[in-house]
What we know:
8 strands, 46% strand, Barwin-like endoglucanases
Amino acid sequence: MLIEVLKSKIHRVKVTEADLNYIGSITIDEDLMDAANIIANEKVQVVDNNNGERLETYVIPGERGSGVICLNGAAARKVQKGDIVIIMSYAQMDFEEAKTFKPTVVFPDPNTNKLVG
Length: 117
């Protein structure tokens, strides 16, 4: 049996941009992507702490070290620049493997979106 479990989480980052006229997705600073073990085009769930919105989209790498978190396309209607979001990805794995699996969780500075430590 396969189950879906949390694989990666970027906890509490600030939305730096919301671009309605872009094709779609979320742009994430590559430093944050690397730290959270998230790759380009990976499906993610985004939860907005300010308004409770939840959405799914895919990741586009943003400029390394920029701190960029940009919701693009229709997703830009669900968040505002300055909102605090949590970005999560999930993986399917065997039930027994899932019992011992440890997700990658990063806690960037919510003011700068830079990695702490």
